[in-house]
Amino acid sequence: MTVHAPSCTRALFSVAVLSAICAFQAAVYAASDSVSLSESTISWSTVKYATSAENGFVSGSLDKKTIVDRTFKTHVLENRYLKVTLVPEFGGRIVSIIYKPTGHEQLYRTEVGVPYGINAGNFYYDWLMVYGGIFPTFPDAEHGKAWLKPWDFKVVKASPGEVTVSMSRKDDSAYSAAPGRFLKGSTGIEATYYVTLKADRAALDARVVLKNPQAQAVDYEYWTCTTLAPGSDPNNPKTTGGAEIIAPIEAYSTPAWSANLSDGDESAGAGRSRFEKLRHFRNWPTMGIAYAAPDMQGGNFWGVINHDNEEGIIRIADNAVTPGLKMWTWGYQSFTNETDARKDPNEARPYVELWAGVSDQFFHRAKLPARGEVSIPETYSPTVGMSNVTAANENILINLSAAASGVNLQFFSIEPATPMRITLKRGDAILFSDAVKADPKNGNRISATIPAGGSGEQVRLTIATTDGRELIAAETKIK
Question: Domain span at residue 7?
Answer without folding.
Answer: 1-32
